[in-house]
Amino acid sequence: MTMRTHYCGELRSGDVGSEVTVCGWVDTRRVHSEHLAFIDLRDHTGIVQCVVDEKLDLRSEYVIAITGTVRTRFEGKSNEKLQTGEIEIGDCEVQVLSVAEPPPFPMHERTDVDENIRLRHRYVDLRKPRMQKNLRIRAKVNSAIRFAMEKQGFVEIETPMLIASTPEGARDFVVPSRLHPTNFYALPQSPQIFKQLCMVGGIDRYYQIARCLRDEDLRADRQFEFMQLDMEASFANQEDIINFVSEAIKNSTEAITGLRPDEIPHMTWNDAMERFGSDKPDTRFGMELVDLTEIFEDTDANVFKVDCVKGILHEGGSDALARNAIDALTEKCQSWGAKGLAWFRVGDEGKLDGALTKFMSDGEIEGIHSSLSAQPGDMILIVADERRTVNHVLGLLRLEIGRPPVNSGELKYLWITEFPLFESVGDHGRPIPAHHPFTMPHLEDLEKLNSAQGEEYLEIRSQAYDLVLNGWELGSGSVRIHTPEIQSKIFEILGIGEVEANEKFGFLLDAFRYGAPPHAGFAFGIDRLAAILSGEENIREVIAFPKTQSGADPLTNAPTQLESNHLEELGLRLVPPST
To answer: Is the entire prediction scored with pTM above 0.85?
Structure first.
């Protein structure tokens, strides 16, 4: 005989007359009369009202089992807010399975609770409907991903958690080896090298829902530990990988929302920077950057005698932005690197009102007005500087003014392609890679590897691509270099000699000598995807046991100190931090 016949939230009018047994936590208790009380019993499916003996000592969060008969509530007593609101369980026999101390915080969602308290008592916090919903959304995302990947011929393979430290950018978490004193393992920042070795090993199509760890500063969209879909495919190009990942994304989205996204649009990195000032544009709203440089080609206004002038149109902004708000935005623009912010209100008949109009010609005023398609009541905001600064500042300003909330209900996926191969040029004149050094250059730019100098390296495109959702970077990938000639050239440009290359990447380079197929891959963050699909701004709300912003775990008190005998066994000695 099972402990329960039904879940609390699944009972309906069709169950009236049935004897049922339900189990769960006491959510609320209300005295009805001298002899009767109402208990709202809660499990992960919802709440059901039960009529019990008033004398029973049933308190908040007691775990109980109730056996009784489903009946229709009295007329006028139904609760439209509950799916079980038309029925209740009467003639109840109650069994107390576990008593509970008063909960450390109110269990109702409308109550704000300090995050440290929530995480200290996470086992209680997880009972809340919000957390139950979020974690089940996350589980559905994982299931949909696995289904899509296996349908496309991918094989799930687990890669090691104890590896050698590799130069992937962020700091490694390290694990001392007892059997190999003075030596350390690293916890993987990603399975990057192992998945490429799988391709050399003939696996053909690999995937894994992988746990990755990076010792980096935390914020709303970062944790020390995070989960990602990691995949790699042999004899595949950029288009193949984009199609594979798009299928997994569409499956996940449909599993949660019931709607399958349309084909995901593509945009080059250069277009994204020029139009949105960001390589992860939020395309749920417009407010695109408009280039006004040519309008001010022969200007007398000194502020516009610069490399680049761009503007954005804030529709209805004349009324929405008071002068103190504009001053605050100007200060932000300056903190982002701009010299200032030029602004103009669009008045009746399209007349521009702003402090700089007296320095501008009629042609310049008309050019701004027509280029931005401004209407009365709008606000025009302009930044003038070198192009990279203009794009960066206006991109941030656009988000500051127009970005919808995370839980807007709108999902805008976007592929960004043709990223630069190098992100900057160092003081030594050598370029700094924008990705790992195994990223394949764009085929049309291969010749530039032999001729580029200085800033010319920044014009070389890569076969790297990102997936963006609502302005969040979900993940990134690239076509990998698999030929020794191109790899040697990249190492040469980066100033990585043969000895250093073998020290850092020797086992991968050795593997490539035994026949490496052309291959490409991708990885995207499941935490971020689950957060957006759940309408959450913070990924901690979709992780069962996350760390705080400072990287601590209030539940287990991690990180903790080790006993001296444990340190001695590992060959370690504590050195006080320098002040």
So the answer is: yes
